[in-house]
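Mods, move this if it's the wrong board.
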Amino acid sequence: MKPNAMVLAVLLSCVACARLDGEQTAADAGLVDLPQVTGVEPPQGDADAKTAFRVAFSTAMDQGQLIASTGRSESVAIVPESTVDRAAAAIEHSRLTVEERGLLVAAAATIEDAGSALTVTPDAPLAPGTYYLLVAARLRDPAGHRLAEALRYRYSVAAPRAQVALVAPPPGTTAPANLSRARVSVASGAGTLALVGAKGVVASIPIGAPGPFELPLCRPSAKTCAPLEPGQSYSLALDGKAIEGTSFTVARCARLLPPQGSFRLEVRDTSLVADVQLDWPARIALRASCGDGQCPAGFAETVCAPDPCAPSIAGVCIASVRLTGLAPATEYAVHLELEDDEGHATVGESQRLTTLSPLPTVVISEVMASPPGPAPRSDGEYVELWNTGRAPVDVAGLTLTGADGIARRVVGSTAVDPVVLAPGGRALAVGGSFDTARYTLAPGVLVLRASTQRLLGRGLSDASPPPFVLSSEAGIELATFPGGSTSCPAGASMELQGASAWTCGQVGGSPGAPP
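Not the wrong board. Structure tokens:
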């Protein structure tokens, strides 16, 4: 290179150095406004597990750096304390490896105000612990000016406070003096749960997971109980801190008898429901007998708090117990087991029952289209339904469909509970205007009144009753009446003979009874 050329190159190089040094000097002197973080929400410190973190900048930042090609932010990140140093170094790179992305808490990123702010929202609640919100120094504004420094903001996510509720005795009530246990429901939290009175801790248990817990106040082996004092109040405490809304008072009276009462069963095809009425709060088990050793059971609990010092009142405590898993059209023996919190337990007597048939075994067995007098004769029209099966059936959903094609339920009102027809039993499907005084019906005969005043909407023709179909609630055809092709004496019904033949019955019919 010629000497003049060498001199020129050195001069140009010095000019470039001088320009770079001048920019740095201007920045250092405050002549260039570098972008800054102007605010962070929430402020560093304590944070909720579901917190969204927002970083605000003094100017709009390069949006391509705020959100990477992954759709996440790899320049503003939430990281656990255990990986903070490695993560802080990683986010200074323009692209993170798969392993480096694993150092960050998975979070959605949202750009706001054209890049002047960024919100990162964790995909799932943060577990208890310490976290850092990192802001990389490589972030630039559109003019190419970088943040002055990488930033860290420290947050602490505390373990959620235990959610504990007193189940029994109910809060604010009065418990008998011989209470043997307090029952508690723990939705979250851990620690030592205690029942505390004026003289200190009465009983305590450790809890480490959600669920129901019992605080035993009596020791069966020693046959001693905690000294609950009449007139005193007791409440729950977790790790020595009182829990609001968990106090009760102890009465001067003891409960000396087990719960007593009665129950009514509603039977379905694969389940049954027992409506239980008791004089004292109890936990209830409804059990069915079976031969394979795995007997189904249903459980419930009354919600009541009668005065231990007042006379017992039958039915003051009620509960509904549902038992599922039964086989249809099957006989079972069922019984109730009752247990209270004063150490009493009792087993009730068994009741035998048969679950309903899944497909109603019901046929049309008699049609009275020409009732005997007096007028109006339509008030005596009926269609007799006969359960020919060996299991009871629910007839509430059965329908009759006439020539107009409209399926009308035999029970007009919407039945919440089953309307059960026993094996071999007969029921009368009638219109709303049916007069039971026209006939001498045997006790217990079901009278199923339709929503219309007359059967099939318009009633049955005396001379030639129309054909109609009996169907299940699901629309399955169960039986058919072919219509009145046989001329019968006035006041006589038509009765089923055999599988499908119809003949004239006796005058006055045989409603609810065999021919």
